[in-house]
Each structure stands twice: as structure tokens, then as C-alpha cells.
Design goal:
CATH topology of chain A: Pectate Lyase C-like
Strand content of chain A: 25-35%
Strand order of the largest sheet of chain B: 7-2-8-1-14-13-15
Helix content of chain B: 25-40%
Largest sheet of chain A: 11 strands, mixed
CATH architecture of the largest domain in chain B: 4-Layer Sandwich
Radius of gyration of chain A: 18 Å
Helix content of chain A: 10-25%
Structural class of chain A: alpha/beta
Largest interface: A-B, 23 and 16 residues
CATH class of the largest domain in chain B: Alpha Beta
Shape of chain A: elongated
Number of domains of chain A: 1
Number of domains of chain B: 2
Distance between the termini of chain B: 36 Å
Oligomer: heterodimer
CATH architecture of chain A: 3 Solenoid
Number of helices of chain B: 8
Number of strands of chain A: 11
Strand order of the largest sheet of chain A: 1-2-3-4-5-6-7-8-9-11-10
Strand content of chain B: 25-35%
Largest sheet of chain B: 7 strands, antiparallel
Distance between the termini of chain A: 60 Å
CATH topology of the largest domain in chain B: Glutamine Phosphoribosylpyrophosphate, subunit 1, domain 1
CATH superfamily of chain A: Glutamate synthase, alpha subunit, C-terminal domain
Number of strands of chain B: 16
Shape of chain B: globular
């Protein structure tokens, strides 16, 4: 495997996102593994990266890390800001620390993993793919979710699954309140098997008993409610 | 956008807080290039009833003397300093004494009556530095790196609704209570609903800027006996719109974020420092931690000195 290191604080890149992305995309055509030193929470790192490369960011990323990637595997060793993996179509984004709002916004495929807690609107308008959150997720988790699956190992705040029309949110902790069109049902044995396999593949080790404690949020209707439910035809 | 930042040294001793905040704001420069500002608390060392005035004066023959004469009629100027700025203006700084804080705002209003002159602020326990342009240029102009203090808040501005000038640079200050400042990222959409009752109480608004509205609102709550934490919590209930803002007082700092969480805010702390910013990259300038906390929608956080 051919590997390369890129220092984002070097004179050539000078902590400029555009220069860093140019260096990453250039390296991705020749190397299978890229390590970025000193990413310093810069925004838009690896935006639009379409090579199937392993990219490690040694530090934190800012907004929109891995937006619109297709096939790359990105590992962030610290935290990420708002909208990591936004609109990803395929690939993997793993964040060892925490992340801000809109994790996995609008993803079409691939997997996003955040090992600690995240901000609000996790997985909003996601169409497919998988999001795993090791800690808590904030307000309106799964807002307008249109497909895919989300697994939250901590608590979720108010209005979970607000206007969800497709997809599934599994929550191990407490659900503060449900949003419009969201419902809670029991997890099936099939769900538990699926969750076990998925979580173990990302080194989340849960006791067997924990899998019985998951709650499953699904849409009540395949289209959103607007206004009061009593006004619906 | 706009960038907001704040830092507290928990031991309440003097630290190079100007240097720390300068680095935090430089890391947020991309959030707003129009102007920048600092409110640096605890380092002025003024005696009781002493105040520092920052006055913007156009470079015109005789105008500075007119300003000095106006001030001297009310109270003798004790010390003075001229800081060159841009666009044919200077910043005239002078130290004065007043019998009480209540005399400060009337003096400022008198000085403001002079054409091409604007009092940027008057303060007892903090140093206000704000100007148009980039952080690094302002920091150099005012030597912010040398400023000592206990805590500070700051801002990089991307203007949206009001003009770009020194006065509209943040922090904004209120004179309802002494030495309160606010830096803000966002818009208050029920501005008039907040402003009207404050004006009915007699509070004076100098601009139509919503950040001025926030600082008067918080100051009014403090005057009513609210603690900073309580005032911040009430503001989140009363104010509409996308916002996150940081308040500075002589006793600490705090942040409030709107109920939908439409503007960013992160924080981190350790045994020595409590710090807040729009983005993580700003926090890393002053604190070495992986533990970055997201401020949740509708959440408020504050650090105030005990005793």
C-alpha cells in the first residue's frame, strides 16, 4: 500500500482548505493511504473526494468535512464541526471525538460514525446509508429523514424523528420527545441481530441485554403531516 | 456570519488575555472581515470613579481641541493618548473622574453632539478596542497582545443590516449598568418587541442594531436583580431569530443560543480556563483539550467569579 503524509500547516498549504484539498485529491490518484497532519479544524476538508482512498486527519476538522465524497474512507482522530459527511453517496467517515449539528445531512449512502456526542438535526434529510452516534444526539434528530438507518447509543433530545417519512432511528438511551409523524415500536430479533453485527463492526461493544433496550423510531405515514393531524384527509 | 469568542482565567489574576483573544479572533477571521473588537476586563487598574473614554475624532483642524474643551468643562482630563486609525480618523483616549456612574452616559451624549465625533465607549473596569478592518491590523494598531486582564470577549464582523464603522463594530455596550458588553452572531427578528418595553422604561437606543438591543435587554435584567445566568435563560425565551451571543460583565462571561440552534457555539474548559467561540479552531488557540462541548439549541452557559 502506498502511503503519504501531508502537513496542512506547511508553507505550501498554509492552512488553506482549497490548497489542502488540491493536495489530497492529487495524492489520492497515486496513493492508497493519506495522513493529514495539523488539520487545525479547517472547513471543507476532502470535499468532493471521489477516489477510494483511506484518509486520516490527525486532529479536528471544521465544517463540512467529507461533504459529497464517494468511496473514500475518512478517519478523524479528534472532533468535527457542523455537517460532517454532508450528502455523501458512498464511503465512510469515522470521528473519534464529538461533532456539531447536522451529522450526515442528506447522505445517499455510506456510513458515518461519531464515537462521542453530537449537536442537533443529526441525519436530517438523509436518504440512505447509516449513521452511528456513540453518545447523545440533540434536537430534531432525523429531521425529515427519507431513508437509511441511524443508531444512537445515548439519549436524543426533543422532537426526535420530526417529519420522518422513511428510514429508522434506533435509540438506546432516553427519547425526550417525538416529532410529528414519528412513532416508537419494539425492536425485533432481526433488528437486534442487525444492530449487533453493525455495532461490533465499528468496535462498539454492548452487553447482550442492552440490545433489548433499543427503541425503534419509524414514520407513522410515508408522507409528512403539515398543520394539525385532524386536518389531514 | 460573524465570529464570537470569550475567555476567562478562572483564578481572576492578570493574564495576557489580549494576546489570547487576538489569537482566538484571528482563527475566526474567515467569519467576518468588516471589523473586529475586544472588551478586555480587569486590567485597566482605574481608581474608584475613574473612567476611560474612547472617542472617534475626524482629523480636522481644531476638532480635537473642541472635544477636549467639552470634556474639561465637565471634569479635568487626567491622562490622554491618541491612537491613529484609518479613514482620516483618530481614536482619542482620555482618563477622567466622575462623581458617579450615572454621570457617564450624559457626558457621552454631550460629546456626541459635536459633528464628526463619536464616543465609542466609556468604561471603568474594561478596555474597549474596536475598529474597522482585519483582526491582525487592529491588533497591531492597538497592541492588543500586550493587554493584561482576567477575562475578555471579542468579535469578527460580517455586516448584514447596519453600516460598517467603528461604532457598529462589536462589542456593544450598555450604560444601564456599569461595564456590560455583548458580541453577537445572528439576527433578533422580534427586535421591536424587545426594544419597545426597554424604551418605555427610559433606556436610550443609539442605533437600530439588534446587538445594541441585546446588550440593553441583558443590562436591564441585571438591573432588575437577575444573575447573569438567569438573564441569559430569560433572553432565550424572549428573543426570536437565529442568534448566539456572548455577554461580558466585570464578573465573568456567558453565552446564549437560540432555541432552534441556528448559529454555532462551542466551549471548552479546564481547571484554569473557561472559553467559548463560534468554532473549535478558535478554542484550540488557548486550550489544549479534545473535549469540545457543543452549545445546544436554547442552551446558555456562563462562568462568573465567586465572591
Amino acid at each position: 500500500m502506498r502511503e503519504i503524509e501531508i502537513d496542512a500547516s506547511s508553507k505550501e498549504i498554509n492552512s488553506q482548505s482549497r490548497e489542502l484539498n488540491r493536495a489530497i485529491k492529487g495524492a489520492a490518484t497515486e496513493y492508497q493511504s493519506i495522513t493529514v497532519k495539523n488539520p487545525n479544524s479547517m472547513h471543507y476538508i476532502a470535499a468532493g473526494l471521489t477516489e477510494p482512498v483511506d484518509l486520516t486527519l490527525e486532529g479536528s476538522a471544521g465544517y463540512f468535512v467529507g461533504t459529497m465524497i464517494h468511496g473514500a474512507k475518512i478517519h478523524i482522530t479528534e472532533n468535527a464541526g457542523w455537517f460532517p459527511a454532508d450528502n455523501m453517496t458512498d464511503g465512510e467517515v469515522v470521528i473519534d471525538g464529538s461533532a456539531g449539528d447536522g451529522v450526515g445531512q442528506g447522505i445517499y449512502g455510506g456510513t458515518v460514525v461519531v464515537r462521542k456526542s453530537v449537536g442537533s438535526r443529526t441525519g436530517e434529510i438523509m436518504k440512505n446509508g447509516t449513521i452511528i452516534i456513540g453518545g447523545n444526539s440533540g434536537f430534531m434528530t432525523g429531521l425529515f429523514m427519507m431513508g437509511g438507518r441511524m443508531v444512537i447509543l445515548g439519549d436524543v433530545s426533543e422532537d426526535a424523528g420530526e417529519s420522518i417519512i422513511r428510514g429508522t432511528i434506533y435509540v438506546l438511551g432516553n427519547i425526550k420527545s417525538l416529532g410529528k409523524n414519528a412513532d416508537i415500536i419494539e425492536v425485533t430479533d432481526e433488528d437486534k441481530e442487525e444492530l449487533k453485527e453493525l455495532l461490533e463492526s465499528y468496535n462498539f461493544k454492548l452487553e447482550d441485554e442492552k440490545f433489548n433496550q433499543f427503541k425503534k423510531i419509524i414514520p407513522r405515514s410515508m408522507r409528512p403531516f403539515y398543520g394539525k393531524e385532524s386536518e389531514e384527509g | 456570519m460573524c465570529g464570537i469568542a470569550g475567555i476567562v482565567f478562572k483564578d481572576r489574576k492578570l493574564h495576557p488575555v489580549g494576546d489570547a483573544l487576538t489569537k482566538m479572533l484571528e482563527a475566526l477571521q474567515h467569519r467576518g472581515p468588516d471589523s473586529a473588537g475586544f472588551a478586555i476586563y480587569g486590567g485597566l487598574g482605574l481608581a474608584k470613579n475613574e473612567y476611560l473614554l474612547n472617542i472617534e475624532v475626524k482629523e480636522k483642524p481644531g476638532l480635537l481641541e473642541t472635544v477636549k474643551n467639552m470634556v474639561n468643562i465637565v471634569t479635568p482630563i487626567e491622562t490622554e493618548e491618541i491612537i491613529p486609525s484609518v479613514e482620516n480618523y483618530i481614536i482619542y483616549r482620555c482618563k477622567i473622574s466622575l462623581k458617579s456612574f450615572s454621570h457617564l452616559k450624559p457626558l457621552i451624549m454631550e460629546i456626541d453632539k459635536i459633528d464628526d465625533v463619536k464616543v465609542l465607549n466609556g468604561a471603568h473596569s474594561f478596555e474597549m478596542i474596536k475598529d474597522v478592518g482585519l483582526v491582525k491590523d487592529i491588533a497591531k494598531r492597538y497592541d492588543t497582545a500586550s493587554k493584561m486582564g482576567t477575562h475578555a470577549i471579542g468579535h469578527t464582523r460580517f455586516s448584514t443590516e447596519s453600516v460598517v464603522d467603528r461604532y457598529h463594530a462589536h462589542p456593544f455596550q450598555s450604560y444601564i449598568v456599569p461595564d456590560i458588553t455583548v458580541v453577537h452572531n445572528g439576527q433578533i427578528t422580534n427586535y421591536w418587541k424587545i426594544r419597545d418595553p426597554l424604551e418605555r422604561k427610559g433606556h436610550i437606543f443609539e442605533t437600530n442594531n439588534d446587538t445594541e438591543c441585546i446588550v440593553h435587554y441583558i443590562a436591564d435584567k441585571l438591573l432588575e436583580g437577575y444573575k447573569l445566568e438567569e438573564a441569559l435563560e430569560q433572553s432565550v425565551k424572549d428573543m426570536d431569530g437565529p442568534f448566539s451571543y456572548v455577554v461580558g460583565t466585570p464578573d465573568g462571561i456567558g453565552i446564549a443560543k437560540d432555541q432552534l440552534g441556528l448559529r454555532p457555539g462551542v466551549m471548552a474548559e479546564n481547571d484554569d480556563i473557561f472559553t467559548i467561540a463560534s468554532e473549535e479552531m478558535s478554542l484550540h488557540q488557548v486550550i489544549d483539550t479534545h473535549n469540545i462541548e457543543q452549545i445546544s439549541p436554547g442552551e446558555t452557559r456562563a462562568y462568573t467569579f465567586k465572591g
